[in-house]
Design goal:
The protein is of the alpha+beta class. It contains 15 helices and ten strands. A hairpin with a 2-residue loop joins strand 5 and strand 6. Helix 5 packs antiparallel against helix 7.
Amino acid sequence: MSGSAYIPEEDLAHLQKLSNEYEPEVTGPLVGERRSSSAITTEYANADPVYRTKTAALPSKYSHYRTCRGDGHCGWRAIAFTYYEALLRLGDKNKFLEEETRLRSLHNLLNTIGFQEDLYEDFADECFELLRKTAASVPAADDSAAASLLTSFNDVGLSMAIITYFKLLTSAWIQTHANDFQPFLLDQDIREYCATQIEPSICEIDHVGMAALAEVLVKPAGLALEVLYLDRSPGEEINTYRIDPLGHDGVPIPDPPTLRLLYRPGHYDILYRMEDIHIPQAPLHVALVGYTDEFVPVGRGMSDVMTLIPGMYPTGLGPNWPAVSYDYQPTPIPQPQMTAVPTYAPIPVPITTQDYVSHVNPTIPIESPVNMSINSPTSIERGGPFRPSMYELEPRFHSGHSHSLPFQTSIFRNSHYNTAHFLNPDFQPEEWSPEAEYVTSNRSRHKSSSQ
């Protein structure tokens, strides 16, 4: 070949093999933080219409999800993590002890198919140690136990040890229950299938392996397994595959804790419903906050509206609020005393009707002056700079007592001191006398005729 470099066919075949076997380096956490499932809908917004339709309906039932690193172990890791997480949601320490005892009893299956105890002992110890560690954190009121569990599964060594242990249990279950799984393997040998599809370090879980893992791990623990398969099958919702646990009577357990997985071609993630999410309620503390300090609330994504009130915060948030201050004086500070108001002695003021009339209007004639005494306010005691009124009633005055005062003047007839006046507190209507009216009328007519 002139004008070009010659490449042997053996080298071309080797390059083609390397290209076929190339896998990009997978990054990210082994198990991610919980996120809103609406991110999945956004991810498929520009994808195939079938995927868009199915993922659009996903957030209405499943509120959150976790990602698992797609390193060939995502399915095994997703089931292992949700297994521990479901036990943690139950909040029963005895349940962890029961699970450890049950898993130890399955070592007879491992021994039956030829696994040496030295091979799986270290892997089993890592699994049991995490069970005990998670059980010890159950009484915690916050989410520290869930955070510790997530940290443990992001440890590559610990995570792979637990996954390997669960793989060995699955292989032992399939080989000891060959009649249940052989129809799904066609003509493939059970032992060969486990050696090539279950036990290898980098081998993703398939449908047979998942069914066997559910039988040996999930169902005996009283848990259910639910897998959503996102594919191009007809329909507007994602197809769901579910395995429910059975009670001792063979009847399915109602509303069991459920492990939920989302399968996308070649990958598994973890799904959650709203009832699967534990929201810890921190105890509420009340602090006295100085009013002179400027209050700046710090957003922590908390749902309790009481934490928005100044001076009220859950445990652990105290440093974000104004400090508590108390003013204390061991010796009371003397306060200035106000000068007492002097008491003024009452001044007796005798008065007569004639003096009163003369003072008001001297031009009014008095037909028949009669001495009329008004109760003097000599018995009234008042303090302060105000002069007591001569017309003020006595303290022992009783409105039911009748005061009959004679009156002869026209001005007293219109005065409120007159009991016949409607403003008098002891108002009594004046009795009408026809004779007096007749006499008054004749005198008036006589005066008129004489003029």
